[in-house]
Amino acid sequence: MKDALFQPIQLGKLSLKNRIVMPPMTRSRASQPGNDANEMMAVYYAQRATAGLIVAEGTQISAMGQGYAWTPGIYTPEQIAGWKRVTDAVHAKEGAIFAQLWHVGRVTHPDNIGGEQPISSSALKAENVKVFIDNGTQEPGFVDVVEPREMNNVDIQQVIGEYRQAALNAIEAGFDGIELHAANGYLINQFIDSEANKRTDEYGGCIENRLRFMGEVVAAMVEAIGADRIGVRLAPFTSLNGTVDATPVDTYIAAAALLNTLNVVYIHIAEVDWDDAPETPKEFKPAVREAYQGVLIYAGRYNDEKGAKAIEEGVADMVGFGRPFVANPDLPSRIKNGYPLAPHNPDTLFGGAEQGLTDYPEYSRS
């Protein structure tokens, strides 16, 4: 049954060797100062290049877009050069890699953005949300987020321009394409979800208005690098980082339809994956498939059996396996051969160096 995961698939101009996606996972190991991708990250991603597609960790498009300490950027020449080392290493292993472009909006703290006040769709603080800052030690220091200021039209146009430039920078850095992070409570999501967006202008209110910012960002990037190199990640039913939508089925089917008109190459849907999380409503996945004709990726609580079944049933075209990729650099081989999966060490997920990043071995029978 797992054979469904190992069928090749066309993604734009890319011919991918399997349907297994390594989704973006923040690891917070960019070189300081500067938040530059580095050789350690190049080794990490190259180790995992047997995935059909790697989507690299969330990468801020500007200094204001950073939510956590030590995450990489893609807005300076040094950051672009750092990512070039990563993409070269992945391509040398015949892998494919997209950059995930990220602006966190209100999910940050002034200490991470040069003392500035964060920006968002509305001046609403995300409740019970913490981020980590560099507190001068090797361990991340967690602090509460602060109230953002509502973005005006000048801010909106500036951020759209930053996304467009980041897409160009990603191609310069050798990425095969980009994924717009419109999920998990970050800036784009803060416009989409009704309970995070209290605007009364053309970017707030009805579903069409709340999707406008995402649509304008995608359109700018399509003009810059082409729709066949752009994917979008959505999280319809999560409440991560304090964003909740009153009518998520209606909102996100409309989002899928909008992205279909923009011809993006894939939609990557993050399903809720914590214990006792609600299941995705049954009517949602067929409705998305009807609204959007491109490649559909799902991620969240998938194992090989569930992932293969989703592909066989036509619900998904590709499946993301997040945490298993942390400790299993050879995950596709382990799935294909039925080898056991190694557990990851949760204490080494964020920050630090090679330990917990590049020192997980491939499977050995001995």
Structure in words:
The structure is a single chain. The chain has helices spanning 39-47, 77-92, 153-172, 187-192, 207-210, 212-225, 248-261, 284-291, 304-312, 323-327, 331-337, and strands at residues 9-11, 14-16, 20-22, 53-60, 97-102, 119-120, 130-133, 141-144, 149-150, 177-181, 230-234, 266-270, 295-299, 318-320. With 366 residues, it is α/β, with parallel strands linked by helices. A hairpin with a 2-residue loop joins strand 1 and strand 2 (14-16). Helix 1 runs parallel beside helix 2 (77-92), helix 3 packs parallel to helix 6 (212-225) and helix 7 (248-261) runs parallel beside helix 8 (284-291). The longest helix has 20 residues, at 153-172. 49% of the residues are buried.
What descriptors fit this protein?
two-stranded antiparallel sheet; 366 residues; 16% strand; 11 helices; alpha/beta; globular; eight-stranded parallel beta barrel; 14 strands
Secondary structure: helix percent: 25-40%
Average pLDDT reading: 95
Helices, by number, come to 11
Please give the radius of gyration in angstroms: 19 Å
Largest sheet: 8 strands, parallel, barrel
The N- to C-terminal Cα distance equals 27 Å
Uncertain residue segments: none
Number of strands: 14
Order of helices and strands: EEEHEHEEEEEHEHHHEHEHEHEHH
Largest sheet: spatial strand order: 3-4-5-10-11-12-13-14
Shape: globular
* Structural class by sheet pairing and helices: alpha/beta
Fraction of residues in β-strands: 15-25%
